[in-house]
Write a structure and sequence with these properties.
Strand order of the largest sheet: 1-3-2
Shape: globular
Strand content: 5-15%
Structural class: mainly alpha
CATH architecture of the largest domain: Orthogonal Bundle
Order of helices and strands: HHHEHHEEHHHH
Radius of gyration: 21 Å
CATH topology of the largest domain: Arc Repressor Mutant, subunit A
Length: 250
């Protein structure tokens, strides 16, 4: 029991859930890998971050083959978000089944899936140039809809200025994901910055410009994350410098 407690990677279940939610927002990975990470989190609550699930059990719950599940585990392991630890049998000796540990890695940029996300304009739509970020339908929590979500649903979640800026380019689901990225980056890199709308808009415009000039090598979402990180880091330095200057004046 004590050895297993030492393997815990989070101080509370809520901390683990917060990390997994952020990882699913940031990491551009296959839909199966996303489902697997959510599954592991759901079975990592007794020892927080540590799952005892066997690969076959994971496969059964995901309704895929054993080998497909192994490949998904390897992809998550390769980007560092999980670790597989083999157990030693204390009585009979030898190796037992492996544990899967969710690792709280630093989510400092948009890590890419094994297959880059397609970018480009949406065919058959003369009014909108759509940037494909990733699959959204299974990631938007608590929203279940039969018809396409429209922007009227987002006014309570996204500032009007940000909506007006991104609306000509992205769908509502994508706008929600973009604003969520901005909030995550602001919390991480600019805790002293009060107004995050203007830096978020500036980052989006920079990403659009990069897209239109063919400077985005991977995905729009990943580039946006990098732009946000740079802009908010600069804003944080300005905010801290301003606070110091005001203190000296007093």
């Amino acid at each position: 029991m004590k050895k297993l407690r030492e393997l815990e990677t989070f101080s509370s279940v809520s901390n683990m859930d917060e990390f997994v939610s952020e990882a699913l927002e940031v990491l551009e990975i296959k839909e199966l890998d996303r489902s697997l990470l959510r599954l592991l989190a759901g079975y990592s609550c007794k020892f927080i971050g540590v799952s005892f699930m066997k690969v076959q059990t994971m496969a059964d719950k995901l309704e895929v083959s054993y080998k497909t599940t192994q490949r998904a585990l390897k992809r998550l392991k390769d980007i560092g978000v999980i670790q597989r630890v083999r157990q030693l049998r204390e009585v009979s000796g030898g190796f037992g089944s492996s544990l899967t540990i969710i690792r709280p890695i630093e989510l400092t940029d948009g890590r890419q899936a094994s297959k880059p996300v397609t970018e480009g304009a949406e065919e058959g739509s003369p009014k909108r140039e759509t940037f494909y970020l990733k699959a959204y339908k299974k990631d938007i929590k608590y929203i279940r809809h039969q018809e396409e979500l429209d922007y009227s649903y987002l006014s309570e979640f996204i500032p009007a200025q940000f909506i007006d800026t991104v609306k000509p380019f992205v769908k509502p689901e994508e706008a929600l994901s973009l604003w969520s990225k901005a909030q995550v980056v602001a919390r991480k890199y600019a805790p002293s910055v009060v107004d995050i709308i203007e830096p978020a808009i500036r980052s989006f415009k920079a990403t659009v410009m990069a897209y239109k000039t063919n400077r985005i090598k991977n995905s729009f979402g990943g580039y946006f994350w990098g732009a946000l990180s740079g802009v908010f880091s600069t804003e944080q330095r300005r905010a801290v410098s301003s606070q110091r200057f005001n203190w000296l004046e007093e």
